[in-house]
Amino acid sequence: MPENDPQTHVIDFRAAEQLLAARDPRGAVKLLDSVIAAHPENTAARLLRARAFFAAAQLRPAELEFELVLEREPDNAFAHFALARTFERAGRPERATRHFRLAAALDPKPEHLRAARFDDRP
């Protein structure tokens, strides 16, 4: 069956990246659903689907996917940062701060450090 062909999944993953870049996150999610169904361990596909959920303002599914990525890759600074943005957008600033700070500790990029607001420590 062509939908079970690993090449098809690579093509779908790349197409999903393009759809997300073209601001069609729902289309990206649809393509990624089949990729993840066939390869549930594929962290890159899960991270891309989390980003697509976030872009589509589907915050709870985005949160769950980012958390799953972090279970597998606890040192993924981008996933911490994106999860923090998800919590921030959902009105959960205390959860956001924790993940902003983890992202900054793992990868002290200027945007991570700004978002972590270490100067505002409680």
TrEMBL record:
InterPro entries: TPR-like_helical_dom_sf, TPR_2, TPR_rpt. It comes from the Bacteria. PROSITE patterns: TPR. TPR repeats lie at residues 77-110. Keywords: Repeat, TPR repeat. Pfam families: TPR_19, TPR_2. Signal peptide: none annotated. This is Tetratricopeptide repeat protein.
